[in-house]
Amino acid sequence: MDHIVTVQEAVTAFADWMEPTAAELAAIESEMPLILADVDLIDAQIIAMDHTPNEVDTRRVRRALARVLTEYRILANRTTDETLGGAA
What we know:
The protein has 2 helices and no strands. The chain has helices at 22-50, 55-84. Helix 1 (22-50) packs antiparallel against helix 2.
């Protein structure tokens, strides 16, 4: 019985070429407020699902959703301004 083996190294997840570039890290950093707002929204939704939702849960989810939309608007405006080369 012949064994089939790979020619490559078994672990390629830590190869040098797989590291994020400076531009990718900058993009993640600029999106971080939106990512954190999304996490807060998910947390609020999980809390509301854990028991019968009440008025406080409704406000928490509504506030978290408003924050997500605000951060998304800020990011979209910033991205548009960078694409267009500044405000007109």
